Give the backbone structure.
Amino acid sequence: MNQKYLIPLTAVFLLFLVAYTGVEGAGLQWFFGFVFPYVALVIFVAGFVYKVLGWAASAVPFRIPTTCGQQKSLPWIKQNAIDNPSTSMGVVVRMILEIFLFRSLFRNTKAAFNKNVSNRLSYSWEIFLWLGALAFHYAFLVVILRHFRFFTSPVPSCLQFLEKLDGIVQLGLPGIFLSGVVLLAATLFLLARRIFDAKVTYISQAADYFPLFLIIAIAATGIAMRYFTKVDIIGIKTLTMGLATFSYVIPEGVGGLFYAHLFLVSILFIYFPMSKLMHMGGIFLSPTRNMANNTRMKRHINPWNYDVDIHTYEQYEDHFREKMIEAGLPVDKKE
Amino acid sequence: MSNDIKSDELLNKIDFSPKYDKGSGNWMDTTKSVQIRPGMYCYAAKAESVEMLGLPNARPWNPLEEDWKLPDNWQEIIFNGLKERLEKFRTFKVFMDICVRCGACADKCHFFLGTGDPKNMPVLRAELLRSVYRNDFSTAAKILSKIPGGKKLAGARPMTMSVLKEWWYYFFQCTECRRCSVFCPYGIDTAEITMMAREIFNLLGLNIDWIATPVSNCYQTGNHLGIQPHAFKDMLEFFVEDIEDVTGVNCTPQFQKKGADILFITPSGDVFADPGTYTCQGYLILFQYLKEKYGLDITWSTYASEGGNFGSFTSHETMKRLNAKMYAEARRLGVKWILGGECGHMWRVINQYMDTMNGPADFLEVPKSPITGTIFENAASTKMVHITEFTADLIKHGKLELDKSRNANRIMTFHDSCNTSRGMGLLDEPRYIIENVCDNFYEMPPNTIREQTFCCGSGSGLNAGENMELRMAGALPRANAVKYVHEKFGVNTLGTICAIDRAALTTLCEYWVPDVEVYGIHELVGNALILPGEKERDEDLRFEPLPGKEEK
C-alpha cells in the first residue's frame, strides 16, 4: 500500500485516539476542551496573518496578468473586460468570479489521445473537479456557519434561517443537514480522484491526503454525534459558550467523541497556516489574476528597478563606424 | 539518432496515465534516475557568450558529463538566489505556497501531451522547485520534519546535484507559454516559476547556447543573429530587389533617419529566415504604399534591429539590458512613437515589462496614426503599437486598396501565439486583417485557439536543432489541430504573428502536416496590397504563380 496515504491516515487515526483516550481514560477534559482550542486558535490567527504579511512584503515588480480574452485596443474591437480587464472594476469582477465561482477551474478540460485509429488528440469539458470543489467549499462554509449556534446565545435569526434552509430535506429525526452529507460526499470524491486518477495519484503528496482524511474524520465524528450516538447537546453548548466567553466550564456527561471532534478541528486550525490550505488567503494575492492588463496605458512602477549595463549607440557606432559609412548608413561622428 | 525519430515512434510513447518507477512510491525518491537524453536537451552555453555579457561562471561544460564544473558554493548560490527572488517577486512566493495539486493543469501542457512524461505536468515541474523551497524556506516544514512521518507530510527534499540536474532538464522543457495558468484556479503561472529557475541557472553559468549566444549577439551587434549593420542593410535591399521583380515598385526603406515620425522594430528572424523574410517584404510593401499615398515617414534602425528578446529567457536583468535599446534609439532619432513587428515574446516584453523596466517614455508622443488620425489609447504610456493594430485600423478606415483574389489559393487557419494571447490578448486584430486580405479562413477547434492556444513547442529559446525530439513532441497538440482543419476544410496555410512560430511551425508542418505552409500576416497583406504604379503581378512574394496565373 502506498505510504503517501498510509502515513496521513495513521496520523489522523492516532490523533483521534489521543483525544478519545485522553478524555475517557486520563480525564484530560481541561486540556482538550479548554486549553488546546485556544492554542489552536492563536496559532491559526497568528500563522495566517504571518503568512499573508509575508506575501504582502514581497514586491510586485511587474504587471503580469494572464490574459484570457481580447485586450482593450481599437474602439471597434470588442474587449473581454472580465477575462482581460483593463480597469479595477474588471479586475474586481474577475476576482469575484474566481473566488466565489472558481471560474478558471470551470474551464477545465480532459485530454484524450485516440492512438492508432485517427491519432487524434481531443479535449472534452471536464466539470467534475469544478463541481466537487465547489460542493466541498460551500458545504464546508455552511457547516462552519451553522456551528456558530454553539458560540452564540441567543442564536441570531440569520443562523436559524440558514439551518432551516440546510434542513430543507426533512428526513429522519433529528432532521438531516444537507451540508454535512455533501461535505462528506465531496471530500470522499476528492479523495477518490487522488487515488484512482493516475495523473493526480502521481502528483499527490502526503500533504494532500492529510487534510482530506482530517476533514473526513471531522465530518464523520460530527455526523456520528448528531445522528447516531446522540450526545448531550446541552452539555456541549455549555462548554462552547464557556469557550466563547473565556470561562472555564467542563460539563459532566459529554463523551470522548465530542472531545476527539473538537481536537481534530483544533489540529486543522493549527495545520492550516503551514500548509497548502493557505490558498484561501493566497487566491486574493495572485498577481496573474488580481491585476489589470493596462501596462501599455499606465506605467507600472517596480520598487526595486535598478540601472543596468547596456551597450549604447555610441559604443555600437564606434565598433562598426567604418562599415556603416561604407554601406551608406548615417553615423553621428564621421571621425 | 534520436533526432531522426519517426512520428509513429513519438506517438507510441504517449500515455496520459503516468506510472511510478518500480519500487518507489514517490517521484521525489527517483531523482537518481533522471537521464538527460539526447534529442531532449539543448547544448550548453558557450563560454564566450556568457563572458561577453559579464554573467558568472563562464566555462566550457557538457550536460551529459557527470561534472558540471560548478563553483564550490553552488548550493549557497542557489539558496541566496531563491531567497532574493522570493522577496523581489510576490508571484514566486505565492506560487510556492498555494498550489493544492488539484491536477487541473496536468493535461494542459503541450510537452506533457506530446511526451506523456509525468514530470512535464506543470504542477510537477513546479513541485521540482517547491520541494526544495519547502525544505529550505518553510518554517512549517522544518517543524513538521521533527515529528515522526512529518518529513513525508512536508513534502520536502534537500538540494542535491541530482535535483539540480532534474531542474535543468525540465525547466528547459517548458516554453513559458502560460497555458497552464489559464486553467489554474489560483492563476499559478509556470512561466514565472521557469523564469525564476532559469535566473538561478544563470547564477551558476548553466544557460543553454541557443539562448546565450543570441543574447550576446543582440547585446553587441544589435540582433540575435549577429547581423552587422552593413549586412542588415544589404539584406533589406535584397528584399527590395525581389519585391521590385514581383511588383515593379521600388520599396527602399530608410535607416536611422533622425526626425522620422515612427521607428519600426521587428524580430531579426524576419530579416534572416524564410518564411519570415516574406513577412518582412510585406512590411516594406505596406510602408512604401503609405509613404507614396499618405507621406508616412518611417525608419528602421540597425542598432535597434531586434524586436525579440532572448534576454527574457535568461533573466529579468538581461531582458532589461536588451530591451533598453528600443527607447534609447527612439530618443536618439527623435521619433514620435514606435511601431513593432509580428513577434510573440517580443510583445509580452513590450506589453508587460518594457515601460516598467526602461520607461517612462516621456520623450515620445502618444501614438497617433498619421493616416487615420486614430489615437492608440491602449499604448498611451508605452508608446509602442503592434503592427496588426496599426494595419487593422488602416483597413477599418478604408485606407488600403486590397486585392483579396491574390490570396485566393490560401485556405487559412490562424495560430495564436502564446505570448500575444495569454500575455497581451491580441486576438481579433490579426483575424480582422486575415478576413480582409483572404477569403478562406477556418478556425481550429476552440480548445486550441485564442487563450487556449497551443505552443509551437519551440518557444522560450528552445528552437535549437539538437532537441528536435522534444520540439516535435511538444508540437504535437498544435499540429494535431492543424491537421484536423487541413483534413476537414482543406486548409493549406497556417497564419501566425510570431517570428519563432514562422520558423518553428514550418518545421512542425514538415514533420506532422506536410501539406500546410506557414505565412506571416503581413506577407498576405503584401500580396493583396495594390501599390501605386505597380505592374500586373503574376507571382506572389514567394515567386509562386498567383491564382489564375498558373498557365503562363
Summary: The mean pLDDT of chain A is 93.
